[in-house]
Amino acid sequence: MRPCEFLNKLVGSQIEVKVKVSEREYEVYHGKLHSFDEHMNLLLFNAVKMENGRKSLRYGTILIRGASVIMIRSLDGH
Description:
The chain has one helix spanning 3-10; strands at residues 14-20, 26-36, 42-51, 54-64, 69-74. The chain is mostly beta strands. The longest helix is centred in the N-terminal third of the chain and has 8 residues, at 3-10. It starts with a helix and ends with a strand. It is globular and about 30 Å long. Strand 1 (14-20) and strand 2 form a beta hairpin.
C-alpha cells in the first residue's frame, strides 16, 4: 500500500505520529487526522503530546512537517 493510500484511509481517524526531534530524540502526538499533502505534512485536530504513554500537553490543531515523521499508526484499529 502506498503512503497516500494509507493516509487516505486514516483521514478522520485518531492516529499516533512519532516525530523526529534530533538524532536520538523523538516526540509522540495523538490526534484526529484532518488532512495531508503530497509531502506528507499532516494536519491534526485535538492534538495531544504524549510522554511516557500519558497526555502531557494539549495543542488543539497542529501541522506536522512530513520530513520529520518517523511513524504513523491508527488508534482506531484501521
